């Protein structure tokens, strides 16, 4: 079954997505930005199905334990090191291809939208995949120190959509930090 692969990420101007295992702006909380993430990743398009979030092991462990697994979503963790799903995770896959195979086999009846939520190497793999891809990017308009980055969103591979249902177009601001939501689609 061909499905759209969605990636969702918040980036600093230099495409930084993390610092020391946290979001770059940590400990500042962007509650509305987080609510956008939760709404996008947990709202299925088909009743009776659940969205899937695919993340690397480090991303899983960067989520506070009380928030794992991400509720109302099927959580798939990628790891070559783990022999069983980490406590609370629903599925373990050795790599991105194995996770996609899970969707077409074991999860084919219950899985709806697929969301890649990090980290950097997983975003790269998703962005280079031959499938139809969408990137839901929150552009944080302030630079913070970063040690983890999103690969460049190449203009010859992606186009910025003028609008997308459910994604606010106006400039956002929380705790003195401005940001805007953008959606890119593979060409």
Automatic annotation (TrEMBL):
GO cellular component, one term: mitochondrion
UniProt keyword Oxidoreductase, yes or no: yes
Domain of life where this protein originates: Eukaryota
Catalytic activity: (6S)-5,6,7,8-tetrahydrofolate + NADP(+) = 7,8-dihydrofolate + NADPH + H(+)
E.C. no: 1.5.1.3
PANTHER family: DIHYDROFOLATE REDUCTASE
Family: Belongs to the dihydrofolate reductase family.
Protein name per UniProt: dihydrofolate reductase
Lineage: Eukaryota, Metazoa, Chordata, Craniata, Vertebrata
């Amino acid at each position: 079954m061909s499905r759209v692969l969605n990636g969702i990420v918040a980036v600093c101007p230099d495409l930084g997505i993390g610092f020391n295992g946290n979001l770059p702006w940590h400990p500042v909380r962007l509650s509305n930005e987080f609510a956008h993430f939760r709404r996008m990743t947990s709202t299925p398009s088909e009743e009776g199905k659940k969205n899937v979030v695919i993340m690397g092991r480090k991303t899983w462990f960067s989520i506070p334990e009380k928030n794992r697994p991400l509720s109302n979503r099927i959580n798939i963790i990628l790891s070559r090191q783990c022999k069983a799903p980490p406590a609370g995770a629903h599925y373990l896959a050795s790599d991105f291809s194995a996770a996609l195979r899970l969707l077409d086999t074991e999860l084919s009846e219950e899985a709806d939208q697929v969301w890649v939520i990090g980290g950097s190497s997983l975003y790269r793999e998703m962005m280079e995949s031959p499938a139809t891809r969408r990137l839901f990017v929150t552009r944080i308009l302030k630079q913070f120190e970063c040690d983890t980055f999103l690969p460049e969103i190449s203009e010859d591979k992606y186009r910025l959509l003028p609008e997308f249902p459910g994604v606010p177009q106006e400039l956002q601001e929380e705790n003195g930090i401005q940001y805007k939501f953008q959606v890119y689609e593979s060409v």
